[in-house]
Amino acid sequence: MHCFNLSRQSVVKLLTLFLLSVTFAGIMSAQKPILKEYTVQKGETVYSIAKRNGLKEQDIYRHNPGTELGIREGQTLLIPVQNAKLPTTIKDVPPTHLGTYTIVAGDTFYAVARKFNISPAILRQYNPDIDPDKLNPGMVLRVAMPDGTPIEEAADHVVVIGENGLNTVRVALLLPWDQVTDPDRYVRFYEGFLMGVEELRRNGISMSLEVCEAPNEREVRNLLTQSRTLGKADLIIGGQSVPEINLLADFARKRGITYVSPFIAAPVHKDKNNAQSYFRLNTPQEELYPYLGTAFARFAKGGKKPLFVTIPGANHTAAVAAMKRELSSQKIPFETVALSQLSAKKLASSAYIIVPDDSKAPSLSRLLDLLEAQSGANSRITLFGYPEWQSYNPTLLNRLGAYNGTIYTTFFYDPGLDGESERFRKSYIAWFGKNIDSYFPKYSVLGYDVARFFIRAMATYGAAFPKSLAQLPADGLQNDFNFRSSDGAYSSVNLFFVTYDDKGNMTRRKAGSR
Question: Helix, strand, or coil here: 140?
C-alpha cells in the first residue's frame, strides 16, 4: 500500500510526480471567507450588490463563477460576509446551545444518520472532529446547528468551519498504477488533476491531497482496511473495476464521504441511499438512450426527415430503437432502409438525416462510398452517428464533413474550440514537456475537469453540494457535468452534438440546441 501527500512545492516543480516511494508532506491552504446566500432581486447588478455589501465586483465573481456573463432575478449568489464574528471551530459554541445525540452500544455513524433522517455526509459535516469508524458508547454527536436548528431544517450548504479555521477539502485520489500494466492514461489523468488543483489553489480554495497506488481489488481492500486517513476524506476519486467501485461506494456511503467514479461505465447497486454520495462520470450508453432520443427528436425538427439505414452486424440497434421511439411519440415521420437498398432515386426524394445503425469504421466508409457515388457532396443530406466516430482518421472525418456529419457524445475536447481549451493545451506542454494525450476521452483533460468541478463544489457547498448541483458551473473543457439521481448514484447524462465540416473544422453544442 503506497500513498503520499501532495505539497505546494510538488505541484509547482512536478519533478517527482511518479516516485511513489517518496512521501510529500503539507497542505495547500488559503484563508477562506465566511459566505452567506443572497437572492438576486429584479433590476440588480453585480455592481449594485457588491456596493451594498461593501465588496468589490471581483469578490462576487470569485465565489460565483459564471456571473461575469451576467446575473438573473431569483439567482442565488454566495456573498462574503465582511468582518464576520463566527467561531473558528464548532467547539467554541456553548454546549447548551447544541442539539446532541449520545452513542449507545451497537450504533454506527450510518445508523445515527438514518435515525435523524439525514445523510451521513450532513451528519459528518457537523462533526468534523469525529472518526466515523471509532464510535464508542458515551460519545456525543452534534445533531443540530449552533443555534439549535435541527440539521435537516438547515440550509443545504452550510459548511461548518474546521478545527484549523479553514474549510479545507480533504481529497483521496486512488490510481491504478503498478509495474505490469501501462499506467500512462492514469498518469495523464493525474497530471491534468494537478493542473486543476493548482488553479483552485490560486482561487483561494484550501485542500489536502493524498494519492494512493491502487492497481487491483486486493490493494483497494487493503487501503480501506489499513489506511488511517482514507476514512477522514471528504472526497474519494478512483476505481477501475466493478468490484472496486462497489467497495469504494459502500465505504464512502457509510462514512458520509462523496465518492467519484471517473473511469469505467459500471452498473450500480440498486440502493437509493448510495445516490447521496456516489457520482458516476462514465454512464453506460444504454442509460443515456432516453436522453439521446429526446435530443435527436429536437434535432430532427430542423426540416430534414430521419432515414435509418440498417447494416448487417450492426452494433447500435438499441440506440436507433430509442431514437425511433421518441420520434414516434412526438409524431415525427421517419423512414428505414437497408444499406443495400439505398439508391440515388431514394436520396433525391427528400432531404434526409441519415442514421446508420452501425458505428464501425468499415460501415461508415461503405456508407460514404455509396453517398459519394450516388449524390456527391449534398447539402440535403446530414449524417448522424456515434461517439466513436471522433476517433477515426482525419480523412474519414473530412469525408464525413461533406455531409455535415454530426455525432452525439458525452465528452469532446479540441483545443481549437475556444481560448480556454487552447490555454490548457499550452499549459500542459509547459508543465510536462509533452502534448496532451490522444485517448478518447483525453485523460489529462478529464483529470482537470474532475478536480475543478468536485473540489470546487465541496469547498463551496460542503457535503450537501448534491442539493446545489444547479448552482454549480458546467464549464468543463471536455465534460459539462450534468447529473441525474438514479436508484444507486448520481449519473452524468450530459450529451454534446459535434458537427464536422469538409475542412476538418468542428463545432460543439449541447445536445438538443441547434
Answer: strand
DSSP letter at 452? I
Average pLDDT of the residues in 349-360: 95
| pLDDT (tens digit per residue) in 183-206 | 889 989 999 999 998 888 877 778
Confidence at residue 471, expressed as pLDDT on a 0 to 100 scale: 79
pLDDT digits (tens, 9 = 90+) for 448-503: 999 999 998 888 778 778 878 887 877 789 998 889 887 778 999 989 999 998 88
The owner of cell 436508484 is: 487
Which cell goes with 149? 436548528
For 92-103, letters b (16+ CB in 10 Å) and e give: eeeeeebbebeb
**Which pTM was predicted?**
0.74
Residue 76, φ and ψ in degrees, nearest 5: -95, 125
Going across the sheet that includes 406-409, the strands are 335-338, 305-310, 352-356, 381-385, 406-409, 496-500, 506-510
* DSSP-derived secondary structure letter, 20: T
CA distance 264 to 283: 8
Alpha carbon distance 402, 389 (integer Å): 15
Which three cell numbers mark 147?
A: 443555534
Residue 379, SS3 per DSSP: coil
Q: Write the DSSP assignment of 274-327 as a string of letters.
A: GGGTEEESS--HHHHHHHHHHHHHHHHTTSPEEEEEE-TT-S-HHHHHHHHHHH
DSSP 8-state class, residue 55: -
Neighbours of 154 (CB within 10 A): 17
Q: Rounded CA gap, 118 and 157, in Å?
A: 13
**Which of 400, 477, 444, 384 is closest to 185 using CA atoms?**
444
Ramachandran quadrant class, 43 (left: phi over 0; alpha: psi -120 to 50; beta: rest): left
Residue 179 has phi, psi (to 5 degrees) of -90, 0
Helix (H) or strand (E) holding 370, with range, is: helix 361-374
Angle of the 443-450 helix axis to the 419-432 helix axis, nearest 10? 110
